[in-house]
Amino acid sequence: xxxxxxxxxxxxxxxxxxxxxxxxxxxxxxxxxxxxxxxxxxxxxxxxxxxxxxxxxxxxxxxxxxxxxxxxxxxxxxxxxxxxxxxxxxxxxxxxxxxxxxxxxxxxxxxxxxxxxxxxxxxxxxxxxxxxxxxxxxxxxxxxxxxxxxxxxxxxxxxxxxxxxxxxxxxxxxxxxxxxxxxxxxxxxxxxxxxxxxxxxxxxxxxxxxxxxxxxxxxxxxxxxxxxxxxxxxxxxxxxxxxxxxxxxxxxxxxxxxxxxxxxxxxxxxxxxxxxxxxxxxxxxxxxxxxxxxxxxxxxxxxxxxxxxxxxxxxxxxxxxxxxxxxxxxxxxxxxxxxxxxxxxxxxxxxxxxxxxxxxxxxxxxxxxxxxxxxxxxxxxxxxxxxxxxxxxxxxxxxxxxxxxxxxxxxxxxxxxxxxxxxxxxxxxxxxxxxxxxxxxxxxxxxxxxxxxxxxxxxxxxxxxxxxxxxxxxxxxxxxxxxx
Length: 484
Fold this sequence. Notes:
Blueprint: H1 9-14, H2 25-28, H3 41-48, H4 58-61, H5 69-77, H6 81-89, H7 95-101, H8 123-137, E1 152-156, H9 160-171, E2 175-179, H10 188-191, H11 200-213, E3 216-218, H12 229-234, E4 240-243, E5 249-250, E6 263-265, H13 266-274, E7 295-299, H14 303-314, E8 319-323, H15 335-343, E9 347-349, E10 352-359, E11 365-378, E12 384-388, E13 394-397, E14 400-403, E15 407-408, H16 412-415, E16 442-444, H17 447-450, H18 455-475
Parallel strand pairs: 1-2, 1-4, 2-3, 4-16, 6-14, 7-8, 7-14, 8-9
Antiparallel strand pairs: 5-15, 10-11, 11-12, 11-13
Helix pairs in contact: 3-5, 3-8, 5-6, 6-8, 7-8, 9-18, 13-14
């Protein structure tokens, strides 16, 4: 289907946003099949006709990786889906991933002029459509690779920041090798995001595409223990290093009872389910405490907490509750995830905060003593504070509790790399534009610099780092001043 009949902008504004087909909640709450089913060819074509082709598209300015959205959507509108996918890959190495998990509503779609008077163009859904169309066609549009430069870069971590940097650097003609501590590639894309939001086969195919471009991968290498950054440069001869290890060290609440059996960090719980395939029990050994017919609470209000509670529901929990100390309006999770959770029978307990967990005589969790909260005055960041309501303590039954209130930096690389400056929270200090650190030839980006953020922001950092690394390798310049 092509755009054979020109439409005026007035006509385009009359076209309603094409809804994303979804798996029925009653079905999906009992399985790990993907929730969003993807646009059809006709649906994608109709949605693309809503684009006004702005002269100065804010959607592009709002995209952390700078995808040429206007050109991509125009190719979809013309029926050239493979051309659209190839154009997308010029700036985005993982379109099938970002089309599924990127918070477009606050980025590209948030800048869409169509959204001023109606719903914005569904850029994320179109991105997913062309990536899936390309994969299913078997006609991958790989970008051109420049002649070899003779320079080599080590990338530490195969998450979104590392993969994005690898895709850009390999196009520049450099040798790129990615080191991953775990046995599977993809970082948070494989261990943190559930199958029903991001099928792992999608990640594997995107990684394989990078391999076809020439990127090398090595798993089961713990940089900082197996090999240090200095050894990578001095002994193995890498000309530059990009540290993209993420921020995977769990944060706990430090309340009584967190040691009890049945209490997990969200990172551990999701890693065991996603990477160790607990969701495929009994075909695979189940490496988590059985959620079936048990009461599960998840503490937190972000996407990770939402992923954990929806996962517990699919594992057969009798009840699955999200416990969040602020109001739903302040919840950082994507609105779509909140909607899906409610559809799947998740109970969201806002303005509620656990004070302690308690267990039985054998050390197994039985419940959580909680207190109701009320909103106070805005804090220094403009976010309303919360305070407990006296006399509102109550008990929630819980056999499993999952703490999803955030993560922080793993200190391994920082502690084994002399001269690498960090802040007081142990995140690596790096220039926000060039990603250069205090150590010559070492760059860093993504969550290990900013703290936990989104997949697309990490990819944006990877692209910035790739540009700066390429410039450094070609010119040899390095700013020696310290960064604080």
